[in-house]
Amino acid sequence: MKNLVLINGRQFALLAIYITIGDTILILPAVPAQAAGRDAWISALLGIVFGIGVVLLYSTVGKRNAGRTFVDYAETVLGRWLGGAVACAFLGYIFLSSAAHVREIGDFMTTQMMPETPIHAIHIFYAAVVLLAVYLGLECIARTSEFFFPVLILFLIVFVLFLVPSIETSNLLPVMENGLGPVMQGAVSTTAYPFAELSVLLMVIPHVKNSGAIRGSFLKGALFGGVVIALIIFLSISILGQDLAARNMYPSYALAKKIDVGQFLQRIEVILAFMWLLTSFIKTSLYFYVFHMTLAHLFRLQQYRSMVLPSGVLLVAMSVLISPNINHFQQMNDYWPYMDLTLGVGTSLLLLAVGFIRGGSLSPKQGT
Amino acid sequence: MRRVRTPGTLLLILALAMATGCWNRRELNDLAIVTALGVDKAERGYHVSVQVVDPSEVAARSSGGSFSPVTTYDATGDTMAEAIRRMTTVTPRKLYFAHLRLFVIGEALAREGMGKSLDLLSRDQEGRTDFYIVVAKGHKAFDVLRILTPMERIPASKMHSSLQVSERAWAPTVSVQLDDLITEIVAKGIQPALTGITIKGDPIVGRELQNLRTPDTPTRLQYQGIAVFRSDKLIGWLNESESKGFSDITNRLNSTMVEIPCPEGGKLAVEVIRSKSKMEGSVKNGKPEIVVTMRSEANVADVECHMHITGRNSLEEIEKRAEETMRLNAEQAVAKAKKLGTDVFGFGEEIHRASPTYWSRVQNEWDQIFKELTVSFKVDMKIRRIGTVGESFLDEMKE
């Protein structure tokens, strides 16, 4: 694939924001709340700190292999077979993540909005739009994210402003009652879900026009997304209280139900659902696009478009097969963060280390 | 570009075809909108009753009036879910709970423990948590749901708004929503408290449309007292002044009337217009302590006695007496709660915040420690204005 599609630094930063917020805005708050209780917001702040570390790591990897995608770099550094194995693992990880994202949409819709609708129907329609986006390519996804960004910001501002009056700071006290342990445990998910999952962007980096600006855009995007996530977690804890934040399947949705301005502006929780559908859609599309990039690279395909429909069928099938019921899906929270960390952060560290040992001769475009 | 357009267009057309409806469509005329839900103890399980709006009777344009604006249905079942579904055998439409305004719990069930009846509402995706929960004092919830009310044609809306209004302007009621209630049932340092609702007059008459035909409405629904719980079990009631004290301590008090005795007999009332209270916990020498600071601003509202009120120091005198009344209410409320052994004020949570280490030691026997808890009050009232007239005309009234 020589004729590279290009996106600019701004679009790259936006993609980073969408991936950070992504599905996490709805799924995440309950996870640290279960681990860290009312200190979940501290976990979220710690998550940002660790997340910045993760982003710095990713952008270093991106810089070293400028002009090459993540899996390409893996093959250069580790050799055809070992690198291929890493690429295969990455491929599987991306595929599972895409399927999980589709399933999250399905589970949410059938839990909160349309309980009698078969989940397959929702999956097929959602996947159809995702496939269209993947078919149209990276530029299209990037422009879509750009187009919807003002709407996202507007909704976010509305959401936060309307909730600020309901904050009860007493829900946050006492701080760190059980010490640092639970907070750190909560920080695993607040680091992994929003930030470690940014590893897909390593496949996108070669497509960024001005490769010098990558680190800046990457950091800006991830930081913005991280602040939004931390804010949502903070609101969940301070308004719902630790018990309900942990007990609710979708705390931020329960939060949105609380909006009531003068008995008049109420029942607008769909705003949150819309925000989530939007960010999750961009995230899923980008994941599935990266899936095709990896696939095309691994099998040396000239173009990936002919693969979109068949792999889409697999995606829908996998999204249903990935867990038999909601409990299994929720229990993935026990190990999913570690998968994110292993395949994102772990692989990056491995590549950097091996690349460093084998010397700079491997990166032809060093210094860019 | 042609290549791209064809599947895209096809997809759009497909999407259009599906946009016309979905599995879960609910047409308005297929729904029975439930405004109030009542639950009572049955021999086995629950006796659940609902109050459903009759749309043609409450519509703004229609004259209405000849039929009851609401209909009630009831059914029993081992679980809430079963009882509610069993109602479909009597309801013409499927019950729709998203507009629920009021959840009434029968006193008998509340005394036995109401926790189990709450899960369905918090779990169901259709239910929202913005309805108020009250206890039918001395009655069955079903009886409460069957009383017709004037002004607001839907009794549940009447009860919803009058709870809001009375909490704001009168104080001895609390508006509690499901989220708060569940949190209070679960948390160790606070116990739930719900407002009681009772029927004044003959319940049988209240069910008839006749009840709306006369101006004095022979049978009415009235909020009365606050029910205090230990976990999910009702264990006692606060009377009106204790309830006021309760509202004041928990910073729910907004506006109310405080009546104070005058030195030469008769009474004077001040209207509290702003009020704020704060509790502060501390643990001294291994003993927990709570200080409640209550600040309020008030105006003189009603002078029904011979008292000089325009003098330089007369307002201070009234302030002192009003503070005394408020303190008394609060002390009575605490004394009652101590007697019942249940911490409805959330003092435990406050101690928890003040000293987490002490709390982790005592949290399981808090009910006992609460009985010995030292609670002191700092009451500060500022009277700002005395209304539109100075001295009362009563002073110069011909004897």
Describe it for me?
The complex is a heterodimer of chains A (368) and B (399). Chain A has 368 residues and is mainly alpha-helical. Chain A has one domain: Amino acid/polyamine transporter I. Helices cover 71% and strands 1% of the residues of chain A. Chain A has 15 helices and two strands. In chain A, strands 1-2 form a two-stranded antiparallel ribbon. In chain A, a hairpin with a 3-residue loop joins strand 1 and strand 2. Chain A is globular, with a radius of gyration of 20 Å. The C terminus of chain A is likely disordered. With 399 residues, chain B is α/β, with parallel strands linked by helices. Chain B has two domains: 212 residues, no CATH class; 160 residues, GMP Synthetase, Chain A, domain 3 (2-Layer Sandwich), CATH 3.30.300. Chain B is built from 15 helices and 13 strands. In chain B, a hairpin with a 2-residue loop joins strand 11 and strand 12. In chain B, helix 11 crosses helix 12 and helix 13 crosses helix 14. Chains A and B meet through helix 6, helix 7 and helix 10 of A and helix 1, helix 8 and helix 13 of B.
| Shape verdict of chain B | globular
Unreliable segments of 5+ consecutive residues of chain B: none
Kindly estimate the percentage of residues of chain A that lie in beta strands according to DSSP.
under 5%
Roughly how much helix do the residues of chain A carry, as a percent range? over 70%
Q: Outline of chain A, from the CA principal axes?
A: globular
Question: What series of H and E elements makes up the topology of chain B?
Answer: HEEHEHEEHHEHHHEHHEEHEEEHHHHE
Structure class of chain B: alpha/beta
Share of β-strand residues of chain B = 25-35%
- Going across the major beta sheet of chain A, what is the strand order? 1-2
Q: Largest interface, per-chain counts?
A: A-B, 28 and 25 residues
Helix content of chain B: 25-40%
CATH topology of chain A: Amino acid/polyamine transporter I
**Subunit organisation of the chains:** heterodimer
CATH superfamily of chain A: Amino acid/polyamine transporter I
Name of the CATH class of chain A = Mainly Alpha
* CATH architecture classification name of chain A: Up-down Bundle
Query: How many DSSP-defined strands of chain B?
Result: 13
Helix/strand/pairing class of chain A, anyone?
A: mainly alpha
Put simply, the count of helices of chain A is 15
